[in-house]
């Protein structure tokens, strides 16, 4: 299957993308991974992206699109893929459609993870991350550490990232509403959107998503 995953910050896209890609035996392609790979490998696109990032500017669509198209041209995507974080606006969505159409391909589904805005704020603003290892993540409500402010795993200090503060989260949501949400309507016009609730346990959301994708494939 060829799938685009969309949803607001804090919807759990990264987590669900990993599980879904594994269950469907297709590569998970995230924008973050694309940037990191191109920058670490010193590609021309990576160098261009780094220049913009060093200047505190957004990487232009044409650079992001070129990275995505390069990745989608690799052999492991022949049986499908799951895109996470791309496309993030209408220009990128239309570029993806053109890329696929040129190869007589098309998307099978756009999976929209739906989460109430207040829940998004609660999820992100409650996150606490270990200074010693950023993979050690806790939550003041859902998975609190045994001792406040201390990582259960290594004893490191837990802190709240600057972009996890409530006012910043709401600004990120505003950007999502303005830039990314329009692609949902764009794909709805193509009858591709499958919307599911992203509330509940991770495995419950994954099963919900798998069921919805299977229904979309059968249709």
TrEMBL record:
ATP binds at residues 10-15, 127, 137-138, 200. Its EC number is 2.7.4.3. Pathway: Purine metabolism; AMP biosynthesis via salvage pathway; AMP from ADP: step 1/1. Keywords: ATP-binding, Cytoplasm, Kinase, Nucleotide biosynthesis, Nucleotide-binding, Transferase. Its main location: cytoplasm. The keyword Transferase applies. Gene3D superfamilies: P-loop containing nucleotide triphosphate hydrolases. It comes from the Bacteria. It catalyses: AMP + ATP = 2 ADP. AMP binds at residues 31, 36, 57-59, 85-88, 92, 161, 172. Consists of three domains, a large central CORE domain and two small peripheral domains, NMPbind and LID, which undergo movements during catalysis. The LID domain closes over the site of phosphoryl transfer upon ATP binding. Assembling and dissambling the active center during each catalytic cycle provides an effective means to prevent ATP hydrolysis. Catalyzes the reversible transfer of the terminal phosphate group between ATP and AMP. Plays an important role in cellular energy homeostasis and in adenine nucleotide metabolism. HAMAP family: Adenylate_kinase_Adk. This is Adenylate kinase. It comes from Streptomyces silvisoli.
């Amino acid at each position: 299957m060829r799938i685009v995953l969309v949803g607001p910050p804090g919807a759990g896209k990264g987590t669900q993308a990993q599980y879904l890609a594994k269950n469907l035996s297709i590569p998970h392609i995230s924008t973050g991974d694309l940037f990191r790979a191109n920058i670490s490998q010193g590609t021309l696109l990576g160098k261009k992206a780094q220049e913009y990032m060093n200047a505190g500017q957004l990487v232009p669509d044409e650079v992001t699109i070129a990275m995505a198209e390069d990745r989608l041209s690799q052999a492991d995507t022949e049986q499908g893929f799951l895109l996470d974080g791309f496309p993030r606006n209408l220009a990128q969505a239309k570029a993806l459609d053109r890329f696929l159409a040129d190869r007589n391909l098309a998307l099978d589904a756009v999976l929209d993870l739906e989460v109430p805005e207040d829940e998004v704020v609660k999820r992100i603003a409650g996150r606490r991350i270990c200074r010693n290892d950023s993979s050690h993540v806790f939550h003041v409500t859902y998975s609190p550490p045994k001792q406040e402010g201390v990582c259960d795993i290594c004893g490191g200090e837990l802190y709240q990232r600057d972009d996890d503060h409530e006012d910043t989260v709401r600004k990120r949501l505003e950007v999502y509403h303005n830039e990314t949400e329009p692609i949902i309507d764009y794909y709805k016009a193509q009858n591709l959107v499958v919307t599911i609730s992203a509330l509940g346990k991770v495995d419950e959301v994954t099963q919900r998503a798998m069921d919805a994708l299977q229904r979309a494939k059968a249709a």
